[in-house]
L-seryl-tRNA(Sec) selenium transferase (Phyllobacterium sophorae), 474 residues
Amino acid sequence: MDSNANLRRIPSMDALLKLASASNAIERFGRPAVTKALRTIVADLRNAIREGRNAPTGENIVAAALARLDADDQSTLRPLFNLTGTVLHTNLGRALLAPAAIEAAMVAMREAVSLEFDLDSGNRGERDDHLRFLLCKLTGAEDATIVNNNAAAVLLVLNSLALGREAIVSRGELIEIGGAFRMPDIMARAGVRLIEVGTTNRTHASDYDKAIGPETGLILKVHTSNYRIEGFTKDVGARELAAIAGRKGVPLVNDLGSGTLIDLTRFGLAHEPTVREALNEGADIVTFSGDKLLGGPQAGFILGRKSLIEKINTNPMKRALRVDKIRLAALMATLQLYRDPDRLSERLPTMRLLTRSQREIDAQAQRLVPVIEQALNGAFNVSAVACESQIGSGALPLATVPSAGLALTPIESSGRALATLASALRQLPMPVIGRIERGSLVLDLRCLEDETGFVTNLVGVDLSPKGWSDDEPS
Ligand SMILES: *Cc1c(COP(=O)(O)O)cnc(C)c1O
């Protein structure tokens, strides 16, 4: 049949829209979207027919339109299995919220709430009041305020306490923590002049002492979240720095980064200074994140001296950086869990994942070996292996937690086998993200709680090279 005859065989738009499958599509996506998708498919088809292709049936055309609408409908923010071994993975959304926090957030989404309304007096209330009491009780702080994230907390503190003046920072603490958060840039945008003291590896008390003058707005101590300077080093501890700051009447701000409300050694993890300790050491202000070790939603906490918090709260920038009712509700529910530290490792997903024992995870790995073997169809060697998880997000940067997982190693090492397998795992209905390490793709199972979901995700899947489609994205 010639192409003109084939073109004439394409059903009319009216005919296509009358098909039962089109009615179903209209039910789901609406008539305008279905009509538009059909027009696009038909236009593409006309070109293909002119190049010699045969006309497909009306049903085929509707199916193609439906597939396109389905693909457009899929959210780009997809749930996935984080098997990277990094528990608080910034690119994968950091902390998972506790059920109590999710519940509280849902109520706040659904209902009007007393966000800035005092139910006792009937007068206007303060948004921060909901968390202030709890935060002060948990940390011993005099006062507290909450903003969008810790980057905002640092920006707001600098701008509120040192605008047009100087902030003193050790050269060993001028961090960049990814996502373009570089301390010198933040300082500039906050309208603060950065005064660097000491050297990269060594900063002494006298360096700070000499730098403090009439223009000093504050001293900033920064948690070196994602690196350690080792060897011939010296830094000035928070307590000593607080004494210097106190003598000169300059506030000391300590950016704790992740921050933790409880001593992590009770969970067998390395020690990370707690917020209470940092305040006890004499910091006038401490800042830390809501979605790192604390295990809540994204937020930035600013705790410390009442007079300074008042100053921060009256900065017009505070209004631009405040948190919404949904996160406030989730934060409150998360913080309430800290009133019973003994049960945190059950109730708070971050702690639950960090404290899973290597034994338990290894048993899970053994159970999953045959499941993965089946999906890989003999193309890879699968073994349960010991590995090391990281906390992530700059908490205890060098500490790792013994874990276990699955190492998938190509039987014949072809150069691209691992990258292609990693890509195939990312294309699963629920993408699986591992890490490539020394010639294997390692799936660290520390964060795998939904084992049934993981197995179901692989049912009938062929992850072997035979199953890789030709147009596999590279
Ligand atoms: C993570 C971190 C920040 C930024 O915190 P966000 O909550 O991601 O904005 C700031 N300072 C330090 C030291 C950090 O580790």
